[in-house]
Amino acid sequence: MSSTDVTIVVVDPAELKPADAKKLPVRDGDDAWKITDLRQIVEVLNSDVERLVTELGVTEHELDDLLHTSEGAGDDQADAGSTALEREQEMSIVNNTRDMLEQSVDALRRIKAGTYGACQSCGQGIGRARLMAFPRANLCVTCKQREERR
Ligand SMILES: [Zn+2]
């Protein structure tokens, strides 16, 4: 388990052409994507990826330390309990960070593939406003809400 499990994708915003933006799926009633919006999203995703890789490295290191803290060596019951709790918390931070990293990388991959902006569940456009606010989003609001209700 390490951050190298995630294959990092970086998109150079300068390489994106207005035509790349125009062909992306939009939500009914939305205007076509503008290259400026797409570049802005790419910049956010690129810096998210960079930040998350760093964070993941730090939390994984901390988790590693916690996992290698010798089990019960001189610890009393309370110490052992708090170490277990700490490990659990650290593990959930690592998992969350990894999820966010994977979602960001996946978004960049979809931008490269020209499929960014389509809901991964129903195939409809996610909507520019939602993506500008949540560049990692891969579901439209309707599908997201349905998923959360499950
Ligand atoms: Zn959907």
- CATH fold name, please? Four Helix Bundle (Hemerythrin (Met), subunit A)
**Given the C-alpha coordinates, what overall shape results?**
elongated
Supply the number of helical segments: 5
Uncertain regions spanning at least 5 consecutive residues: none
Proportion of residues in β-strands: under 5%
Report mean pLDDT, rounded to a whole number.
90
**SS-based class:** mainly alpha
CATH superfamily: DksA, coiled-coil domain
Identify the notable features of this structure and list them briefly:
150 residues, mainly alpha, Four Helix Bundle (Hemerythrin (Met), subunit A), 5 helices, elongated
What is the fold's blueprint, element by element?
Blueprint: H1 18-22, H2 35-68, H3 77-113, H4 128-133, H5 141-149
The structure holds zinc ion.
